[in-house]
Amino acid sequence: MQHSTKTKALVESALLVAFATVLSVLPVAQLPYGGSITVASMLPIVIISYRNGVGMGLGAGLVFGVIQQLLGLNNLTYFTTWQSIVAIILLDYLVAFAVTGLGGIFRRGLKSQPLALCAGALLVSVLRYACHVISGATVWAGLSIPTTAALAYSLIYNATYMVPEAVVLLLAAGYLGSVLDFRGEQLGRMVRSEKKTLRPAHIGGSLAGLLAVGAVAFDTVMIFSHMQDPESGEFAVAGLLAEPFAESFWLPVVIATAAAAVLAAISVLLLRPRR
Length: 275
What we know:
It is a single chain. The strands form 2 sheets. A two-stranded antiparallel ribbon has the order 1-2. The longest helix has 30 residues, at 150-179. It has helices at 2-24, 43-52, 54-71, 82-98, 113-138, 150-179, 200-227, 250-270; strands at residues 29-30, 36-37, 180-181, 188-189. The N and C termini lie far apart (56 Å). It is built from 8 helices and 4 strands; from the N terminus they run αββαααααββαα.
């Protein structure tokens, strides 16, 4: 029986890793100098860790990191020394995604499943962000990150995609954790006593939040693609004014931001509780 359970967990983990990979190769936004915003591509690994333990989660996260490395092999061509190549493999891929396996660490400490999943999602997002920041401030300094104030640039640049990525991950983890029970051997719906009623106001707030995240992600990609010099990696506000207004990115940025704000306000107003 124990052998059968372990085999089932391995098969389930393999399927979730495959699903995470599919989500990672279909990003919502791709930054010009590395990094992307996905539809909670780390969540399947967090679920593996929550359901089957941190050990299984770390193994799945490592496999996920190896796959990400294979998909990003072209990034190694920017470096000539073996030390730099090893650092990139570890910091930007293996370690950065292996830590996702810690997502289930709060299962025993927090009784609320949505809260435990959200806490795990926040933890792995911070750890992955730290890996990318260290990589940017050291190995990538002088390439996509300028050597002057490399740590500050790395903190800012990596936050532009990791913050929206973390927000989407937290929203997805909280929602799925409130409607599906991941603690049993068989996946099922959350018991009514633990499932809070989803009110229209909650839906409106969630829609507004998602629209805000989408607008920030779009604006970030557009702005950073014009601010950073492809040769030196330096960020300069002058890059935002280098093109005529009609041909620049300002019009789509303004339209996207305004549309998101209007739609968010409408969703909150229409779904607010009536007295």
